[in-house]
Amino acid sequence: MNSNGFGFHFGNDDNDDERRDNQNPFGGFGSGGLGDMLNQFGQMLSGMGSSMNSPEGAGPVNYALAERIARQQIGKIDPVREQDTKAVADSVRLAELWLDDATILPTSDATVETWNAEDYLSKTMPMWKRLVTPVAEHMNEAQLESLPEEARQMMGPMLQMMNQMSGMNFGMQLGNALGDLAAQSLTASDFGLPVAPNGTIAVLPKHVAQISQDLNVGSQDVLVYICTREAARQRLFKHVPWLVERLVSSVEEYAVGLVIDTSHIEEATRSLNLESGDPAAIQEAMSQLQNMDLSPKISSRNAGAVTRLETLLALVEGWVEFVVTKAMGERIPTTNALNEAWRRRRATGGSAEQAFAKVVGIEFAAPKVAEAMELWRRVDQAVGQQRRDAVWDHPDFLPAAGDLDKPAQFIDGLLDDGEVDGFDPIAEINRLEEMLKEQDEDKKDEDDKDGEN
């Protein structure tokens, strides 16, 4: 394993591009096309057993196959030790006390669990399915739409088989990606992705112990730090009820707009003059084809959904890092070193955009977590802790993507709101709703009286 502090195995080496292709769950839509898919079909069938025909094997992703491959990749896992369970519970209890001083969001009252890699795989799979399925469904549709009409008609009788092949291909790639992720995740929501069951704070103590060995920091400090980050995330997920659905809906919106562009492939093949019939020209054309990038260009008509996803993940992780630093900074001197190790982890592959690219199949830029943390720090300094956390009351109150680089205007807006004596936007909305409700009741009473007369 290529580890560096909190670093992930998704590191950089000479085979990085090849690994990326192998782990991308939608890598099957690469340059190979239909021919390679047919050639791989026999290999897919070999040894798949009941994974093919089980209910979990149906649909756009063969999840039974994905889970089987992931478990094979994880290998034999020791059960969680009782002393680790106690250490995690004690660390979370301490973290919650410290977080009370750093945020107005109360404790999540979540169940504290200690997981191993198998637990991570089985308990996060439902949310991974929610994230992966819409992308796979619309990827299949976009793939079919990108074919010429004649090809679509020819594929008609084979469509069911092609869908099964596609689901198996997705399952194989997804299984490899999830197996890698399950073997290295430190908590249930490492990157601001709410993949754990609702109301669960989950930590993988064996993985935390492994990365502790690479840091010049006491193992207890590392465990408390990891638990504090996870507890802070769960406060957001619990008390900002729209947050989880907004993250998921951004993925779904992106998926709905998926488009596969093969025009550059058609243009390249036309320029090769394959219709000439000249063996020498055809041989030269085949040589040129080997050096061409014939991968379809995958994009989305709803590209704004990716920007919203980037921004939201940055705001979540930036807020978490700020309140954790505020909660721990004066209590544990190694907090700054741990923050730096966490940033290295993001930079070397342990990050939301890497997880989405490898597991979900969405490529996006690295969320600007450092900029988001600085924004929250400046907001806290300008308007205080209560007003800072009230920004999470409604998605429309949150900073936009441009505010991460230039937060002054956003902060000025908060200061202007604060100048209005006693102005509370949420309270105003509640008062308006109550007034409308009373008006409706008065009208109903008047209608009832008219009916009696």
TrEMBL record:
Record's compositionally biased regions (Low complexity): 1-10
SUPFAM superfamilies reported for this sequence: Metalloproteases ('zincins'), catalytic domain
Region spans: Disordered: 1-32
InterPro entries assigned: Zinicin_2, Zinicin_2_N
Pfam families per UniProt: Zincin_2
Matching PANTHER family: HYDROLASE (PTHR39420:SF2), PTHR39420
Protein name: Hydrolase
Species: Corynebacterium occultum
